[in-house]
Amino acid sequence: MHGVIIIANRQFEHLISIIEACDANMLLFVHVDGRSDIPKAQEEQIRNDGRIKFFSRRFSPNWGSVDLVHCTLYMMEQALNVDNIERIHLISGEDFPVKSSKEIREYFIGKEANEYINYFSLPHSNWKNGGMERLETYQLYDYLNVRKQKLLIHAFHKVQKVLRVKRHINKKFLPMYGGSQWWSLTRDCVQYVVRYSKENPQFLRRCRYCFGTDEIYIQSVVCKSPFRDKIANTNLRYISWGMRNGSSPAYLDITDLPAIENGDFIFARKFDVEISHDLKSRLIDSIHLTTN
Q: For 162-180, what is the mean pLDDT?
């Protein structure tokens, strides 16, 4: 049996579509942003769905904040409370499965020990200035909403560059790794991450006043763990990087279907209720064909 952690903050009609695309052997653990204005009827529909094993609105994380890591670790613990879950997937409320639940479980037959997470060592050319500025300067994302206070956040960062501020990183936290926030890990690996976080709280504390540590923390723990040699450096997600359809990563549309069908993916992102409607309809039809 697999577990799916879904972290959502908007597009709740689409979130319901994700739930409906899963079968009874895909247990769902849903976290909805505590500040999100979810209609009461939709929240009740989600809470009362038999596939939902756990529902929470405990956290209200700002984009780029360390609270996203805290939220993820909390939901990992909830998934671990179900004894017969052997693999756990982390997705957002803007993802969608590109295979049926049965096909997803079958995909991992013969690959039971593999950890599917995207990673690269830092600094790395994938990220602006190698990515280390995320950790070496003081960031305000833990307290400010970038959508409302972007100018203040950026001004504070520019002042630090002028003053040549560089925060110290303890050598015991090095090397650091980054990558996509979304992953599919074995139960044992998830247990290790949760246990490590409790036994080494200083690393999580060091992620405060940083930026985007939801794309650093899990990678840095797993890549220095006993599971390192089992990592397949892919998260099995189809993502179209770059600006398209008013978003980066792009909101997917029907033109992405051939790449999804011909690729090695189990989930895709990002989906918009309107822009991605035709693509999602085709994927739902395909899921129904392989399920029935």
A: 95
* pLDDT tens digits along 109-121: 999 999 999 999 9
Beta carbons of 89 and 11 less than 8 angstroms apart: no
Q: What value does the mean pLDDT take over residues 27-45? A: 96
Q: Where do we find the tokens 């409607």? A: 277
The DSSP secondary structure of 91-131, one letter per residue, reads: EETTEEESS-HHHHHHHTTT-TT-EEE--EESS-TTSGGGG
Q: What angle do CA 48, 52, 54 make, to 5 degrees?
A: 105
CA dist 90 and 6 (Å) reads 6
Q: What is the pLDDT of residues 188-242, one digit of tens each?
A: 999 999 999 999 999 999 999 999 999 999 999 999 999 999 999 999 999 999 9
Distance, CA of 74 to chain centre: 13
Neighbours of 55 (CB within 10 A): 17
CB-CB neighbours of 247 under 10 Å: 15
Q: How confident is the model at residue 289 (pLDDT cuts 50, 70, 90)?
A: low
Residues with Cβ within 8 Å of residue 16, at least 6 apart in sequence: 42, 45, 46
Output the six-digit token pair for 95: 């993802």
Contact between 63 and 140 (Cβ < 8 Å): no
Which residues have C-beta within 8 Å of that of residue 117, sequence separation ≥ 6? 179, 180, 183, 184, 185, 218, 219, 222, 231, 233, 235
Helices (H), the chain: 12-20, 40-47, 67-80, 101-107, 133-136, 146-163, 187-199, 201-206, 217-222, 257-262, 277-291
Mean pLDDT computed over 272-284: 96
The alpha carbon of 163 is separated from its chain's Cα centroid by a whole number of angstroms, namely: 34
Burial of 279 (0-12, 13-18, 19+ CB in 10 A): buried
* pTM of the shown model: 0.95
What size, in residues, is the chain? 292
